[in-house]
Amino acid sequence: MSQILYLLRHGETVFNTQGRYQGELDSPLNDNGIAQVKQNAKMLKSIIGNPNDWRIISSPLGRALQSTEIICETIGYDFSKVEKDNRLSEVAVGSWAGLTTKEIEISWPNLVNNTDLYSWYFNSPDGESYETVVYRLTDWLENIKNEPKVIAISHGLTGRILRGIYSGMEKDDSLKLEVSQEVFFKLSNKEVQKISLEFDDFY
Question: Which residues are catalytic?
Fold first, then answer.
């Protein structure tokens, strides 16, 4: 039996709107973020059938769990059954957590020079390396490979890298993947399909 994995990102947070990098810090969902999660959850509900047939796994970070709780409420799933897995956490940016790009450029100019829009956050002096993130996500995918139906709630950068690994992409291509909070993704048979309001008439 082939596996279906739905991958969702948490909704917009206060830090997102301020342009601050969250990493392992936390910032609550704002009203727009709550609405985004509810919209995605309604779309998810319309395509998964019985929610209790699914294994739901979330990043343990607060913004992901807040989103997961909204999803569970919408699809009719017992939130207490959700599994938390550190491997789905956002990429740790160490001392850069909570800062804006401008603040980072001022304090660490030598570390962001000669990088691009997509990879500079891996230059944080005490953050995670790309290879470390690939290792933990590959490990997670290996662990769930025999589960037929999985719903995962994660983060922007982590979700990019996870989809890249799943599709066999190179690093540079993975880091350019879409991270909108108004869509989610279906991973099945080594293919990744974006699901959004334009995808189908869900209402």
Answer: 10, 90
